[in-house]
From TrEMBL:
SUPFAM superfamilies: Riboflavin synthase domain-like. This is Riboflavin synthase. InterPro entries: ATP_synth_asu-like_sf, Lumazine-bd, Lumazine-bd_dom, Riboflavin_synthase-like_b-brl. It comes from the Eukaryota. One of its GO terms (biological process) is riboflavin biosynthetic process. Its EC number is 2.5.1.9.
Amino acid sequence: MFTGIVETTGFVKELNDNKENFEVTIQVNDHPTFLSDCQIGDSIACSGICLTVIEFDLKDNWFKVGISLETLRRTTIEKMWTKIGDTINLERAMGTGNQRFGGHYVQGHVDTIAEVVSAEQEGDSVNFKYKLRDLENVKYIVEKGFITVDGASLTVTFVDDDEGIFGVSMINHTRSVLCKRDIGTFVNIEVDVTGKMIAKQVELYMKKFTK
């Protein structure tokens, strides 16, 4: 479980893109303690994708993850993690104790991807619009609701249900933490799981009256 508050970024250090054994080694940027309590089997959100650590090095500050075919189908990995140096947003799983909860409940289970279609400056913020690859996911996106974009917890500012386009607004601080994504590139999208759960229950309930 994650909060969608990206802690730092990393980049592809090594890449084995054989689909039978797809593995990525990620070098952590500017966060020397990011892996300080890491264990084999831990989950780390990598641009919003919950991935399992299969190897790591505290001294050199890198970790390796294995990636399933299902993850490849759902995410931007084959589009955006294609060469050494490609950038990745990073967040460790939620801890215990007196940790503040800053974003929203994020599972790291990516639903689909979206293309960055526009970015317009407005004061200190930039208003981004994204177009979903899989239009059916737009029914879970509501104005002022939560959404996770490349691992970042954001508030939806605009939805076009017919076109499968939605918008968010990012302040300068948020943009400075995240990896830059240009217009025409792709991001991972996780819709709010609450909406999916409600939709499923309504669907099952309505089936009782259509038999």
